[in-house]
Amino acid sequence: MSAKPIAIVTGGAGFIGSHAVDNLVARGYRVHVIDNLAGGRLENLKQHASNPDVVVETRDIRSVAPGDALFSGARLVIHYAGIGDIVPSIEQPAEYMSVNVQGTVCILEAARHANVSKLVYAASSSCYGLAAVPTAEDHPIQPKYPYALSKWMGEMACFHWRSVYRLPVNSVRIFNAYGTRSRTSGAYGAVFGVFLKQKLAGNPFTVVGDGTQTRDFLYVTDVAEAFVRAAESDITGETWNLGAGNPQSVNRLVELLGGDVVRLPKRPGEPDCTWAEIAKIRRDLGWQPQVSFEEGVGRVLAEIDYWRDAPLWDPDSIAQATQTWFKMLSSEIA
């Protein structure tokens, strides 16, 4: 019997990464996970706790170097690790650059020296800025805040390593992933985590603006499937947008979750609509979203206790957390 192929998942104890681990294990891979647990949780991998084919190392991706033993014999690398909270990036730009750019370079170098067959980078649709919709892959790049810039620079590093070192890479630009195991970290950020804790506490949902803004929400198992297909494909050097192609309003999310609302000022630099044009990824990878928004929200609600230890945000604490954001981006120079 031949040995199982090895896949590396950085950020593999995190939200999307842990679902990618599930997907790869089901496909017959031995999976090596690296995660510093800043946003991930070992609980997300509890179903693999006794599985010898899943190896977890809890350390920073910036500790990875060429010849790293974790990468020995690896065939695929799926690189999710990085700082994912958007709002704090306005106050911590250097740390975002260090982790999301230099950390990516560390992974690229380890992958290059391990002669992997493919590296897939988890890019962000935030690189497009205030984009025309639906947004295709050739849309102009205009990151509006440090998180977006750091993810774009990480993506550019990947393609530079492909150009100079012939490292086979693909990039997948995620629009709005949601689902079970999403972050419960202390930073103010993704709408699902904020709302779920508020629902558990019986507090009103803090809706930014009038709630008519729409996001191209895609359920996490559909996200993970797209990444694994991008890794296993013979295609290299490509960038794909990844969403459901079916934007949903924040008001619709509130309706599905059920609860009262308190409204907050609209934030500068954030789009009214995100909407991925997904014809390319459908055509190239044969990928299709499988989980409807209503079904996905139902799955999240079924596991709402996961967010019981998440921070509880209210209008005052959100105003404090976004104070620098408003100060910097309200006066942004075009």
Automatic annotation (TrEMBL):
InterPro entries: NAD(P)-bd_dom, NAD(P)-bd_dom_sf. Gene3D superfamilies: NAD(P)-binding Rossmann-like Domain (3.40.50.720), UDP-galactose 4-epimerase, domain 1 (3.90.25.10). Residues 8-298 form the NAD(P)-binding domain. It holds the Pfam family GDP_Man_Dehyd. It comes from the Bacteria. This is NAD dependent epimerase/dehydratase.
